[in-house]
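Give me the fold.
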Amino acid sequence: MPTLEQFRTSRNLLFWSLHAAGWAAYGVTQYFGALLYEKPTSYARVIAVSAIAGFVLSMPMRYIYQRLWGRAPRSMILGVLATCYVTALALRIVINFSYKAFVEPDWQARGLFELFGGALSTTYLLVCWSVLYFGIKFYESQRKQEEAMLKAVALAQEAQLKMLRYQLNPHFLFNTLNAISTLILDNENRMANQAVTRLSEFLRYTLDQDPMEKVTLRQELEALDLYLGTERLRFGERLRLEYAIEEPAMEALVPSLLLQPLLENSLKYAVSAREQGGRVRIEGRLADRWLELAVIDDGPGLREAPVAGERRGVGLRNTSERLAVLYGETCRLVISSAHPGLRVDMRLPLELAEPGLEPARTHALFPPAMPRGATA
């Protein structure tokens, strides 16, 4: 027996099912009407012939209407009325002759008017059939347009997310390769090899991860550790990191590489620009149905920037746009001064990972659990 999905996807199956059901319903209502008006028993044969003839004679109407579809409204209306009337005339001939054969053998048509008697009522019936046909066709057309529009929007969002996700800061690559080059010149081959390995693993992770998929916060921090491995070569003890992540928040889902551009922004302004370096703190916790994240540095903050918007940089704009595409207005990103420094707060709808989620493919040195206040 056909399923609901098959009816939805197969137009032929839907048409023939409704076509047969409609004429069967016509036969049943006519039969009960004959009982009500105390028609002779033989009239049931006339009703059966009428239903079968209606089923057969109205089949070509579908193919005529397919040619009429898309034409000017006036042409469609005139074409439908003409098709219904011609079909009704043919159907009335069959009905009247079956009446003569089964009910009243002595009946004789005394002209074309009697031969085609009842054509107007049959035309009305076929017009109802036509309205139902065009109604379903219009509904299917609208649904296909909506599906095409939704698919186009989804593809556009995916393309936008990929563009934003793969927008890797050239300065990061330049500085990392420059640091590796310096290690090689200083004959620090072992550290240079570790740096190349970390860099390749981080780049491979960025390419392997689907921008439309989310990862757990734990996996996100493990991937972040690959990035930090190369940055520690540049800054050494000048880079001071603090993690304040509550354990329940570790299983919350976030967009992959959400924190990397924020951290890179902090490293650029709070660590790289100052001889003494700086401190960066990452916080995370659950609050009711929300995941709250924060990246805080002790750099110059917003006040010392010529224009507040300039302090945001590519990384902050990238993150803001990605969150807008993924969550719309259900998320929040706030940038404020931390006195001293800059604070970036995010509030995302809480989504928890399902048990047995495949872990991210990283070789992380990040600790499996970080109690609040832990320092790296």
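The radius of gyration is 37 Å.
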